[in-house]
Amino acid sequence: MRSFITKVTRQSLAFSAPRLFMVGTAASTLYFYRRTDMSLLRSQTAFCASLAYQAPAKAQIDACREELMKFLATRRNMCPTMVRLSWHDAGTYDAKSGTGGPRAVMRFEQSGEAVHGANAGLKLARELIEPIKQKYPSLSYADFWSLTAVCAIKVMGGPEISWRAGRPDAPTVESSVPDGRLPDATQGCPHLRSVFHRMGFSDQEIVALSGAHAVGMCHPDRSGFIGPWTTTALDFDNAFYENLVNMKW
Question: Which of 52, 90, 153, 219 would be a feasible disulfide site paired with 102, CB 3.0-4.6 Å?
Fold first, then answer.
């Protein structure tokens, strides 16, 4: 899997400016929110139509964003986990069936996606920001988690991400998808392609998303692995790609 990502990273470095931006600036998570999260939101028409969700006024969203920014600035060590929470909420999407995607089904904590192995450790993130969520009941959990991740990226030195509300929450835990839709680090390239091609990504876009590993680290109680991806685990930078291309493994 590492050789696959390294190969495509090298190929991407010779691409046009948009591709170079994706790889050279570790814009993976930014790219995810601009392309994936919003495309999932638009494509879930049947799901959204079945739920009544009126997005809150801009003033409410701005107030929530400001509070999240202040809170995350004091808990910078949790910022990568907040990005992971939103990504794991949205990353279950299946383009063919229209199932999965950002709908906060993990808030049903006793079963379903909340107990999937790939989501180990995310309960802490959900509990940590729950007091802020309670102040903004008109904001869906799916929107709130997504906005939290956007703020976390900014706190870690990343770019300002264009964001809008509109993700309705799943009404029950029965909206959970089967376990296995998120990447498994113990499997190889065919598995990685099956996960992301299911959402409509190309190989270059898989690599762009993999750059999210520039932040955070592995924990044995979550992924089974241990250690940081880079020496700047709380900085949104391109160290992940630099390590893949320049370091000997």
Answer: 90
CA neighbor of 142 nearest in space, from 168, 161, 119: 168
Under 8 Å between Cβ of 207 and 193? no
SS3 99: strand
Q: Over the range 66-105, which residues count as b (16 or more CB within 10 Å of their CB) and which as e? A: ebbeebbeeeeebbbbbbbbbbbbbbbbebeeebbbbbbb
| Active-site hit among 88, 116, 191, 219 | 88
Q: Residue 18, Cβ neighbours under 10 Å: how many?
A: 9
Alpha-helical runs (H) found in the chain: 2-12, 17-24, 28-31, 38-43, 45-49, 58-74, 79-90, 122-134, 141-155, 189-197, 203-210, 239-246
Question: Each residue of 83-106: pLDDT tens digit?
Answer: 999 999 999 999 999 999 999 999
pLDDT of 170 above 60: yes
Question: Is there a catalytic annotation at residue 219?
Answer: no
pLDDT digit string, tens, across residues 174-233: 999 999 999 988 888 899 999 999 999 999 999 888 888 899 998 887 788 888 889 999
- The domain defined by 2-246 carries CATH number 1.10.150.320: no
Query: Using CA atoms, how far apart are residues 206 and 116, in angstroms rounded to an integer?
Result: 22
Residue 62's pLDDT is what?
97
End-to-end CA distance of the chain: 13
